[in-house]
Amino acid sequence: MNPSAESSQPAITYLNHETTVKSWLLTHDHKRIGVMFLVGVILSLLLGGVFAMALRLELLTPGPTIMSPLTYNRMFTLHGVTMVWLFMIPAIPSAFGNFVVPIMLGAKDVAFPRLNLASFYIYLTGSLLTVSGMLWSGADTGWTFYTPYSTVSPTALTPVLLGVFIIGFSTIITGVNFITTTHTLRAPGMHWTRIPLFVWTIYGTSVIQVVATPVLGMVLLLVFIERVVGAGIFDPSRGGDPVLFQHMFWFYSHPAVYIMVLPAMGVISEVVCAFSRKNIFGYKMIAASTFGIAFVGFFSWGHHMFVSGQSTFTSGIFGVLSMLVAIFTAIKIFNWVATLYGGSIDLRVPLLYVLGFIFLLMFGGMTGVAVATTSLDVHWHDTYFVVAHFHYIMVGAVLMAFLAALHYWWPKMSGRLYPERWSFLAAVTIIFGFIVTFLPQFLLGNMGMPRRYYEYPQEMQWLHVASTAGASLLAFGFVLIAIYLLWSLRYGPVSPPNPWGSRGYEWFSGSPPAPHNFTQAPRFEREVHDYTVPEAPRVY
Amino acid sequence: MTPGGQALAGTTQTEPGAVNEFFRKILFLPEQASTIAKDVDHLHYVIISTAMVAATLIFAIAAYFLIRYRRRSETDVTPKVQTTLGWEVLFVGLPLTVFLVWFFIGYHDFIRMQTPPPEAMDVYVVGKQWMWKFTYPEGPNSIGVLRVPVGRPVRLLLTSRDVIHSFYVPSFRIKQDAIPGAYTQTWFQVVKPGTYRVMCAEYCGLKHSEMWAEVVALSEPDYEAWMREQRQGLVTRRDATPSAAEREEPHTPARQAARYDAQRPHGELMYAERGTLAERGQRVAAEKGCFKCHTVDGTAHIGPTWVDLYMRHERLTNGQTVVADEAYLTESMMKPLVKVVAGFEPVMPSFQGQLEAAEVAALLEYIKTLRSTRLPNVESKGPVYEPVGGK
User: What is the pTM of this model?
Assistant: First the structure.
């Protein structure tokens, strides 16, 4: 191609060069695998959302409303399992990470394309097994599978455990793939100090995935063995130790929070720069804090166990280490806000989600500090306060970032623009609906409403009604998004290669990108998100 | 929320009344009925106020930038602005200092909460799907109601018979997991007489949300009187009448005292059952609240103990004697007031329509398994474990 043909969209893209079903199912293209992951996680989000709405409806009245206690117990378990393992863990790394990381690095593909496809099918197998367990007779242990209840529960926990165990391998493989890709496939001239921050967070996430997920695999396998063979590992009536399970489970599941949150933070770092047309305020601080979180995240699992009988000293250590996570998060928040200073800010929908993200993460983070303060956690542990706290992180932060990424990279992935006004309405509805849903849950926790309660005292009802009303708004927002995005796939205006004028490295390729990302070798001459010159980057 | 929460909460130390109540009410916190509750809450006020103020401040700054630096032209260029050492120190130092101060105040309180005073009285607590049982070293035990004296520290020694439960008293700001196969401890000191709700906070199965009990805080003389009566009852009678204190109390079971009477379907219950009929009977008994009045360790409670009940010759209030066979036991569940055992009050509610046939059978099988005959055999061989509060 003629180098002077600047900003020209390639005619042959990854979407139209092959269109058979087989070409999708057997593809080695990281972009198509990313899209398939995206479809998978969005379906999981839908499933988990349906469970969530069922829970909220049941909690409208203090007594039984629409379901029996056993059904309710299954619902919250399936809501948790679906949202954590089927949606949130793969959501940003496996879907968006797969799509944009190689492009950001200027690579043709990930380091192990076949392994990448295997990761998708492993995820699919695990998900199907988990869902089949749900259809069989559900699972009623909560997503935490605490022993010894999980070893004696009469529900179909075994396929769910196996399903999650299998999904773990998908997580590990994807992690290994991204680490190798980042090390070996960077374009010439892309030094470590010039890697986009999204890649840094995916890299940090991958390290957690590779190190922590095997522990989850082990602990699930041990529960599986205890259930099937009857060996005494965690069940004290057979000589086991139930608290050991909690240690092993949280050794994975606390870092897992950062598997979800770190990529979300990476998305925010990209979107803030793109829409404020500014370089990031503290590149090194944000990159370093990413690894700070990844590292400290491994040493704070005990804050889930302040009332489990662990020693006072141990609780203190875990409490103070948990505070460090909040400090690294605060560093990021300050830097994002400082990035807005002196920018040229265009308040588009992705940036709106970012503002929602920052505001809600402040609450989620500060209440995280509050629950890490050991004395306060005693009252809040296992109440709705904790439920609200982690939903502020999981939904308020991660889901906002997921939606920001979905809108920011929608033209990149589909080659179409989404309708601006409808998306604005949906974004406002979702942020407002979120606050109405989860703010009352902090107050419920203060009142002493334990989580996983089918029935609750009368005086708490109005807060539950408010929460359910907010959840309905949230659901409405998501339905709206689903409608206009599906509409946009077919009828949306065709997007220019770089609709945001972004200087992120992924915009050096077309929208949608060529089958091998670039039609010629890209050259990243300026730093990422450098807006000191008026010309947008050319499309390679 | 009011800005400068730190300063406000600081004043609560000097004038405890109004400001404390104001924050407690807007944060929907339950009453502060234990010695630790106020200290915990004060830190709570400071942290939540600061969180609100900080979130608002950050958002306000972002909003200001959003307007001040709005895009004016599609070809805007922006200067490269990068962080300096000063900003880095501020970004790290500010939260670090604030968080560490909070942590050490909180940890100081936490150590207090974790360390029972040496003079504390002990109560053993056993969690079980889905009820709480309290046993005093002096002998008496009760299900669903924990009576404690006001003004005296109480140490609870907790364990569980099946899965993990968590003993949670919101008004005391305490919570402690009860773990099978291990004892954990917590303590509290109540500051005013009253009834406080106990809930299970660790998910424990089908009826997790009904695993309630209550702490009844009595004044010291009332508590002593109650305890005296309990101990006399234990010494003189095997199957004794309820104590005077208990007879005077309106005997609504603890769990139902504070809640709606929900009519729940029964089909669901048997669905998840497994194990022998006797094991199922034990579960039914727990679900139906039988253990609130009947014990399975030989002690008398509101109703006769179930140990050795099957085929026992019972003397009734009308002077007759019956053999407690299946027929009598079933009749007693359905029409409990027809043949009341001598020495007990006619207080048992009818379970007609509440229990399905299968559940009745399960209960009977369960009662049949409760035999104490092995005790004499063991006795001859050496020292024997006698349940606290036994004969």
Answer: 0.81
Answer with the residue of higher pLDDT: A265 or B295.
A265
| Nearest residue in chain B measured CA to CA from A280 | B82
Binary contact (B58, A501; C-beta < 8 A): no
Q: Mark the ranges of chain A whose per-residue pLDDT is less than 50.
A: 1-6
Rounded CA-CA distance B360/B351 in Å is: 10
CB-CB neighbors (< 8 A) of B27 in chain A: 443, 446
How far is A60 from A464, CA to CA, in rounded Å?
6
Q: In this predicted model, what pLDDT tens digit does every residue of A381-432 receive, in sequence order?
A: 999 999 999 999 999 999 999 999 999 999 999 999 999 999 999 999 999 9
Q: Is B86 exposed, middle or buried (0-12, 13-18, 19+ CB in 10 A)?
A: exposed
Instruction: Give me the pLDDT at residue A156, please.
Output: 85
* Helix or strand holding residue A39 (H, E): helix A30-58
Query: Which amino acid would we find at residue A400?
Result: M
Look at residues A288, A297, A292 and name the one whose alpha carbon lies nearest to residue A255. A297
- Report how far residue A142's alpha carbon sits from residue B164's, in angstroms, rounded to the nearest whole number: 13
Q: B311-343: string of b/e by CB count within 10 Å (b at 16+)?
A: ebebeeeeeeebebeeebbbebbeebeebbbeb
Q: Do A378 and B208 touch (CB under 8 A)?
A: no
Could you read off the pLDDT of A153-178 as tens digits, one per residue?
888 888 999 999 999 999 999 999 99
Closest CA to A355 of A289, A238, A292, A435: A435
Element (H, E) at B194: strand B194-200
- Residue B273 above 70 pLDDT? no
Tell me whether B274 touches chain A (CB under 8 Å). yes
- Burial (0-12, 13-18, 19+ Cβ within 10 Å), A439: middle
pLDDT bracket for residue B253 (50, 70, 90): very low
Q: What's the rounded Cα separation, in Å, for the pair B323 and B300? A: 19
Q: Give the confidence band of B41 by pLDDT, cuts at 50, 70, 90.
A: very high
Start-end of H helices in A277-399: 283-296, 312-340, 349-372, 374-380, 384-391
Phi, psi of B161 (to 5 degrees): -90, -20
Rounded to a whole number, what is the distance in Å from the CA of B361 to chain A's nearest CA?
21
The predicted pLDDT at position B143 comes to 84
**Are the Cβ atoms of B47 and A366 closer than 8 angstroms?**
yes
d(CA A233, nearest CA chain B) in Å? 13
pLDDT at B293: 85
Picking from A226, A249, A373 by the largest number of B CB atoms within 10 A of its own CB, the best residue to mutate is: A373
Q: pLDDT tens for residues B156-214?
A: 989 888 899 999 999 999 999 998 878 888 999 999 999 999 999 999 988 899 898 99
Q: Are B116 and B185 in contact (CB under 8 A)?
A: yes
What value of ipTM does the predicted structure carry? 0.90
Instruction: Give mean pLDDT, residues B275-297.
Output: 80
What are the backbone angles phi and psi of residue A32, rounded to the nearest 5°? Answer: -70, -40
Burial classification of residue A149, based on how many CB atoms lie within 10 Å of its CB (0-12 exposed, 13-18 middle, 19 or more buried): buried
Cβ–Cβ of A281/B83 closer than 8 Å? yes
Q: Which residues are within 8 A (CB) of B235 and not within 5 positions of it... i.e. 6 or more apart?
A: none
* Cα(A38)–Cα(A406) distance, integer angstroms: 9
Q: How far apart are CA A16 and CA A272, in angstroms?
A: 31
24-53 in chain B: CB under 8 A from chain A: 27-30, 39-40, 43-44, 47-48, 50-51
Residue A286 to chain B, least CA–CA distance (Å): 11
Q: What share of chain B is helix, strand, coil (3-state, %, to 5)?
A: 40, 20, 40
Q: Please work out, in degrees rounded to the nearest 5, the angle formed at the alpha carbon of residue B123 by the alpha carbons of B121 and B125.
A: 155
Looking at A224-233, B118-127, B346-355, B369-378, which range is the least confident one? B369-378
